[in-house]
Amino acid sequence: MHNKAINKHTKKEVNNMFGKKLKELRLKNELTQQKLAEELNTVQTTYSGWEKDKREPSYEKLKTIANYFNVSIDYLLDNDNYDNNSIICKLERTLNKEQKKKLEEMCKIMFPNEYKEIKKEQL
Asked: Of 6, 47, 104, 107, which residue is least crowded by CB atoms under 10 Å?
């Protein structure tokens, strides 16, 4: 793994956390190792090695995994406990552009203060 990504844990600790997080994400998404390996453009034996902490993905593959699950690399390495895999995040990923606009409008009405704060942060 890329050394810059590992900032507060030893390599061994990160390995143990990474495999556990990876398996957790796979199971939450109801994927087999084979199917996820295909999605990540790798073979099942390599993927299995990541989950069992016997192998380490390259930094590029780590980015691919984070993007696939819509989580940060820090989350995968257990430096960030925020999980973008909530039901709301999953739902949002299934919406088309028009549906996302409607959802944003609904959020604006339902959560006006939070909406304003988030918009401020985005500027």
From this structure: 104
